[in-house]
Amino acid sequence: MTVPGRPRRSCLAVPGSSTKMLGKAQGLPADQVFLDLEDAVAPLAKADARKNVVAALTEGDWAGKTRAVRVNDLTTQWTYRDVVDVVEGAGPHLDCVMLPKVRDASHVRWLDLTLGQIERALGLEEGRIGIEAQIENAAGLVHVDAIAGASPRLETIIFGPADFMASIGMRSLAVGGLIPGYPGDPYHYVLMRLLMAARTHDLQAIDGPFLQIRDVAGFREAATRSAALGFDGKWVLHPGQIEAANEVYAPSQEDYDHAELILDAYAYATSDAGGRAGAVLLGDEMIDEASRKMALVVSAKGRAAGM
Ligand code: GLV
Ligand code: MG
């Protein structure tokens, strides 16, 4: 299947406490930016970060980018003030609110109701601001199906590997890459689980960060694994990771061209002129209705990437 929505091949983390980064991010070729009020911002800097984020959204030039703000999680004292200040201050300039460490559907419903109240109070279009839910603990993973169906505002399910690894007691400090001593991909189950929940509700699935920012080859390998499963994009923590993400989560030119060929050949074969065939040979490849659906996925991802 294809999941329409905003492009999110590269989702750039921008600390809300850094006015320098908030300025620089505007000129970078990331599909999405998320201005962070959570873990990249120290507790004593949270209040100022809210002001910086509101100013950056209202005064900055984010043309062509999806604009999200990550608020603090619902076990803290900061979440409600984050949401109220950011949406009251910059609602019309904001596409999504990202909620971290979601444990169950009630967290998403709280945000949905709160956004609705602020939209009504301000006379903003109701339901326009979307929600992105980060799954980064065992409870969130166990409840992910209910979370993914908790609000029509939901646009993405995001994996948060660092917090997730800490939450389940995973004995590694290497976030995003393979784990020495484990003979396989330790994230395979989690990624597939998130992807199934996301696709059940027509949401995008986004892979989390890769912390070794100078190891672009390692980033590319990790991104290639989740892109192969069907993930739509990945977080980037540094400008040096953006190009790799934009490339990896778009199909190769060869695959895109082949998909277009399948679509054309199948459309002809099933028509009156083509003899109303259900399955036909394209070169040495047997194609049928399922091939058409697979080709549609590749074609849609390619078009979204401007191919
Ligand atoms: C991201 O928030 C993570 O915990 O990996
Ligand atoms: Mg986290």
Automatic annotation (TrEMBL):
Organism domain of life: Bacteria
Domain HpcH/HpaI aldolase/citrate lyase: 9-239
Binding sites annotated in the UniProt record for Mg(2+): E136, D163
GO molecular function, one term: magnesium ion binding
Keywords of the record: Lyase, Magnesium, Metal-binding
Gene Ontology BP terms: oxaloacetate metabolic process
Pfam families, A to Z: HpcH_HpaI
Known cofactor(s): Mg(2+)
InterPro entries: Aldolase/citrate-lyase_domain, Citrate_lyase_beta/mcl1/mcl2, Pyrv/PenolPyrv_kinase-like_dom, Pyrv_kinase-like_dom_sf
EC number(s) from the headed UniProt entry: 4.1.3.34
Binding-site list for substrate: R70, E136
Enzyme class, UniProt record, top EC level: lyase
Record's protein name: Citrate lyase subunit beta/citryl-CoA lyase
Organism: Catenuloplanes indicus
